[in-house]
Fold Ferredoxin reductase.
Amino acid sequence: DPRTVVVVGASVAGVRTAQSLRTEGFGGRIVLVGDEPDLPYDKPPLSKQFLAGCWSVERIALLTAEAAAAVGIELRLGVAAQRLDVAGRQVVLIDGSTIDYDAAVLATGAAARPAPWSATSGVHVLRSMADARALRDDLEVDRPVVIIGGGFIGAEVAATAHALGREVTVVDPLSAPIGRVVGREVGELFVDLHTRHGVTTKFGVGVESVEGEAGDLTVQLTDGSQLAAGTVVVGIGAVPNDGWLAGSGLLVDDGVVCDEHCRAVDAADVYAVGDVLRWFHPGHGEHVRVEHWTNAVESAAVVAHNIAHPEELRSHCPVEYVWSDQYDWKIQIVGRPVGATRHTLVGDLTSAHPRGAAVYTDDSGDLRGAVAVNWPKALLVCRRAVGAGASFDDVVAQLDRLSAAGAAPA
C-alpha cells in the first residue's frame, strides 16, 4: 500500500487507531505524532492508581518503542502539530517540519478547562502524566486539599487524596454534581458516598477566588465562607484541542464536525477520533461529542477500518459507556440516563456492601440507560438491552431476578 496515514495525537484514540490500521491489514506508512515527550500512556489511572503511587509509568504504558517498531508505527513524540494543510495534504509540526499524508486522523483529545483564579502555585488540573506527578508531589504534604468540581475527575481525586490520609473538601456550584449525568435523585447517593467516607462536600456554592501559594492557599466561596488548603485541584470540565485547526478550513464547532463514518464533513481524507470528534450519531439523529475512554477506543476501530477498507465504510453508532472508581464503588454507566423521565432502583446502594443499579426510561417505554454500582452482571444485561432497544419493564424484571439469585445463599 503506497499510502501514508498520519495520526495526530498519541493518547488512547491515536494509539488504537495506529494499531488497528495494522490489524485491519493496512500495509502503508503510519506516523504517530504526539506533543508530549513521554511514550504513550493511558489516562484513567492518572486520577487513581498512578496518583496514589501504586502503579508505575510502565504499568500505564499504551505503546512501547519496541512494540511500535515491531508493527511499523513511526513515532514523532515531543513535537506538537501546529496546523493542518488540507489542500496540500500536510501536517505542519511546531518545529517547522512537515509530514505528507494520504489520510490524516485527528486524535488531539481535550484539555482540562483552566483554572480562572490567580493563585501563584499549588493549584492543579489533572489531564497529563506531568499533571499527575506534580499533584502527587503536593499531596505528600499533610495539608488540607480542596477540590473544585464534583464530577468524575473531582470525585476520583477526592477518593485518592482521602485514601492518602488527606483532609478533603469538594466544592461545586451544583447541589448534586453527578446529577447532570444520572439525575438528581441518584446524584444524591453520590453526595452521600463522599460524606460516608469522611470527605466534606460544599455543594450548591461557587468559588469566588483562590489566593496564595502551595501549602498556604485560601479558597473564597460565594456564600462568604473561606477554606484553607495546601493544595487545590480544579476539575471543571474539558475543552477539545481543536485550536490548532483554526486555519485549516475544516468545520470545527466544539470538536471536528464529522459524518457518521468519522470523516470530516468537508474533507474526505481527514478523520477524527476520541474527545476531539463531533460526529453524526445515526442512532441519536444528531451530532454528539463524547469525552470517554470507550468512545476513543471504539471510534479508533471504526476509523482504522474505514481507512483500510474504503469500499465498505462503517458507521460509528456506539452505546455510550463510562466507568468511575470512587472509594468502594465501581460505577458503570451505560446509555443516556440524562434524557430519561423516570427511573427505578434495583438492589441496594446504602448498605455496608452496596450493590445495585438505577435503570432509566422515557415516554417510549424502552430502556434508555443504567447506572450500576459494584454489579458488573447487571451492567452487561443493560448494555445489551440498550443496544437492542429492549423494554424498560423487561429489563427491570430481569434485574429483579438477577438480584434475588445473587442474594440467595450459595
Remarks:
- The chain has a mean pLDDT of 95.
- The two ends are 57 Å apart (CA to CA).
